[in-house]
Amino acid sequence: MNKILIVSEKEINGIIRTRSQMLVGIFFALWFSVMTAPVIMTAEESLVFDQFNNLLFYFVLMLGIFAAYLFSGKVFFNEKREGIIETLLCTPLSLRQIWAGKVLGVTIPAYLIALLAAALITVIANIFATTMLLPSPAVLLHIFLVVPAFIAVAVGLLGFGHLLLGMRENQIMNISIFVAIFFALSLANKNVISGGHVVSGVMVGAMLIMAVLLLALISYLTRYLSKERIVTTIS
Amino acid sequence: MNAVEIQGMTKSFNEVPVLDEISFKVRKGEIFGYLGPNGSGKTTTMRIMLGLLKPTSGKVLINGKEPDDSNSDLRSRIGVLLENNGLYERLSAYQNLLYYARLYGVPESDRVEKIERLLEFAGLSDRRNEKTGRFSTGMKRKLGLARAMIHDPEILFLDEPTSGLDPESRMIVRDLILRLSEDEGMTVFLNTHDLSEVEKVCSNAAILEGGRIRACDTIVGLRKSHDKPVIEITLVDTGYAERTLDLLTSQDRAYDCERDDRRVTVTLNDESPSTVLAMLVTNGIAVEEVKNATKSLEAVYLDIMKQGREDE
Q1: B73 interface with A at CB cutoff 8 Å
Q2: Superkingdom, according to UniProt (chain B) (predicted)?
Q3: Range B240-265 average pLDDT
Q4: Which residues have C-beta within 8 Å of that of residue A106, sequence separation ≥ 6?
Q5: Buried b / exposed e across B196-217, counting CB within 10 Å, b at 16+?
Q6: Within a 13 Å sphere around the CA of B265, how many CA atoms are in the beta-carbon half?
Q7: What is the ipTM, given to two decimal places?
């Protein structure tokens, strides 16, 4: 079996078994769905469909990234803080294989949280709507292609940061990202309520291209990671 | 070909030298002790040998190859137990060993048998399904050692393998290290503070102090390198021991002495053993036996440390 898949399988099992973390992820998915989906009650009849799609567009992505942030800390940061990473670096795996395995291992459960959020938003919105609401094809593409790609970008970047930076810088980075995610979530809420725009196929396509380019860039950046850098920033 | 060959290796962090011209060789199948106080550079040396750090200069060859990131084949032949045991606390003992077995590419048909055997060695067969986070320090250490051996490595790098272990477990680990070397021809590189451990299991050792190798030889050679004659005096009764030490270490004589119950080991200066014996008898010390002895490794180690500090 591919070594990357062995690492990712272990990380997925580890995340799923850590009940507290999964519960936090599920709680946030539920909380934001319950708090945001009823917004469509306040929308004009003609804007209900667009607002519902906007909700899915913003919140599924944001909650996926939030879950990625939540899980990355355990997979990258804790492993480095506890020194286990040093033993892992002595195995036949290359540094990039370890990074890729962990990115995949965090992306999958984080994406599952994002899908849960999409399902919850759809169910709750339909409770309040007078007509049945289903995602547009563009939003479906967004959920099935752009969201996992952006989650992978977020995990890749966070993992890169955790491995590259020292413990203190990592703590500062964690707090900054936490604040940034909540700021982005409130900004998304504002955009949805104002009914700013309609999610189009072009917009989704552009985001997908951006995600792929970012993934390629982060993958390239991992060349600048070295075992020495990781080991000397453990303590 | 040597299992480890290090030639003129130096390492600096931010231009501060940590290792200075380190050179030694470890033959295949040998148990090599790497001794030194905290901060002497032992862990840095081991990290360089494992490819976790790059040397600033010099040559480092493990099984004839440089331990860089591209050399995954070399890493698959090496077993490592670092200060951290490399165990995942949320995984059970069995799952931890299985994970590493898969990473090292242990064939599926051998995995279960190997894991069972190593769990038995670690005394954890009946706790195989318990999360390792619940284990004691000693249990984790033994499981860490089992993990390091999951793929039958050719070279085993051990950093303080018996720290946190009770005396019985220490003996089990020591016996295992000896067996691995004698029966399976495994090379063992042992980073340790424990001089008695080195004396019991190692054939060769290097003593590191202040980033420099102060001595490197066989254990017998290290003891002999201390060129002053040593005698072991057995006293008739323990009651004479304190007085004997007082006499031998009084300012005008200042012999190096070690006491073990009613035996006193004395490093002589220029005198003959009979002079010392006469002095003791004259002062009313009842001596049962006097014989030639060698200095313990501990005494040699402390001498070398002292000498190193004086040189600086």
Answers
A1: yes
A2: Archaea
A3: 83
A4: A11, A15, A68, A71, A72, A75, A155, A159
A5: ebbbbbbbbbbbbbbbbbbbbe
A6: 15
A7: 0.86
